[in-house]
Predict the 3D structure of the following.
Amino acid sequence: MMIFRYSLLSCIVLFSATVVASASDQVPGKMPEGPVAIVGATIHPVSGDVIEKGTVLFDQGKITAVGKDVEVPEGAEVVKAEGKHVYPGLFEPYSMIGLVEFSSIRATKDYNETGTNNPNVKAHVAINPDSEVIPVTRSNGVLLAVTAPTGGLIPGQAAVIQLDGWTYEDMTVQPEVAMAVGIRSERDTEQLEEILQQAKQYAAAKENDVEIQHDMRLEAMGRVITGEQPIIVEADRWEAIVRAVNFAEKQDLKLIILGGYEAPKCAELLKRADVPVIISAVHRTPMSIDEPYDGAYTLAKRLQDKGIRFCISGYDRSNYWNTRNLPYHAGTAAAFGLSKEDAIRAITLSPAEILGVADRVGSIEEGKDATLILCDGDPLETFTHTESAWIAGKPVDLSNKQKMLYEKYQKKYE
């Protein structure tokens, strides 16, 4: 028995050391002391026309000027960027980034809480700032992401985060941006309807100063029932999409569809209800044997043609580490009908608009956060490199574990 205890203790110590050793080595960026000017680059504001040989000026985390004739203040840090391109930081609109590290170990999976009804769960407080997935993701230009819990009827509340910072407070752009909800059957809608009814009664009792036992789950549903906080429902089949839209309309809820593979089949309903779609995983196979091979590739263009608001995600719950491939999902959509400008918009400004944070991020405009990437080409192309990046004005370390291993073994075989 004593031998077993020592063995178990050794395993725990070894596992703890492994987890600590796996933490990313990058140090979060520090705010520059004065203004920074990126000069001479081709600027892609997304919200406006491309600016050739332009300048982006930012100070204390905010963009202060954009254009061709921007006066650079004396003493400003100047980044000479002739021949380069400046884009807004790319925005992944749905992921589990920062909530899972080793998917085979329950202790490092913070995306799925016990129970099925957890509206009080908040993803942003569970983020691991030292996750190795984060530096790999941002090194490819993805600087913003929605991270969300999953599993059950109401998994909890998603948050918009920026992919750099010492703590979850540093990383959070907007907490509680949406409520993840699972509507997979009529039974789910019945249970949700009951929960919403309880939440409305709870809110009414509090408003009228009726003495009532505090319930943090019902409390968390407050902004959902008033329409301030949207619900995100994962649905691919048209039947599931129609069920979600009808339920949201009946309950007067604000809805976002995640997935949307068959959304064009119920386009009129989505358009009438003004329900946007987060397209998940452009790189996926057809859902039916009679579907064309490019069904997922052309989805963005088909939604655009039908007037449905959308953005593009690389979300795949089984491949949480591949958020870095977001620009290539958009690139494939561009290769199958979407213009390059609209593809870039689908991973920058469109997710910011759909999720209600476009006043801060998503485009290069005066007054917005200086969350930018400097590239040597088109970020939708695999051979393009993100050479520099800033998150809310702070320079970002673009190294990661893979790059360090590459450099290590380059030296070994010199």
